[in-house]
Specification:
- The chain has 140 residues and is mostly helical.
- 71% of the residues lie in helices and 0% in strands.
- It is built from six helices and no strands.
- The longest helix is centred in the middle third of the chain and has 28 residues, at 36-63.
- The mean pLDDT is 94.
Length: 140
């Protein structure tokens, strides 16, 4: 897929999932409660955002001529090494990847209160910003 088309799709998915999380955030901030179905929607939106970001990270590494690691964690480490993301952002990326892994593989041990606090505090916003930023390739 051409990088410009990939970026357009990535940004569109980010926009859609972020809008869902923003809607949930508004409900939570105004004292509302999310139904179990809505809570599952929040988990799904976070999962999709993070998976989308992992895909973009790997596309950026591939397009710059770097070997693409299998690990999502190593993909973001590679972006930090290239200067695409800041080193001090790795902690947030590792936490996001860990949450995604828990949603997919360890779903019986999710603390929904912590997830909803994450949504209230817009801790998903950096992922959306990364996804909506234009792709720039600087060969290494």
């Amino acid at each position: 897929m051409r990088l410009d088309l990939y970026q357009a799709e990535t940004a569109l998915i980010a926009q859609e999932q972020t809008a869902l999380l923003d809607e949930a955030r508004t409900t939570l901030l105004t004292g509302g409660r999310l139904s179990r179905l809505e809570q599952n929607g929040v988990l799904h939106a976070i999962q999709v955002l993070v998976e989308n970001a992992i895909g973009k990270a790997k596309q950026l590494l591939k397009a710059s001529g770097k070997q693409v690691p299998l690990s999502a964690y190593e993909s973001f480490l590679g972006l930090a090494e290239r200067g695409t993301i800041r080193d001090n952002d790795l902690t947030a990326w590792n936490a996001a990847i860990g949450l995604r892994n828990r949603i997919v593989h360890d779903y019986m041990n999710i603390d929904m209160h912590r997830v909803l606090d994450l949504v209230k505090n817009e801790q998903y916003r950096f992922i959306a910003d990364f996804l909506q930023a234009p792709i720039t390739i600087d060969p290494v």
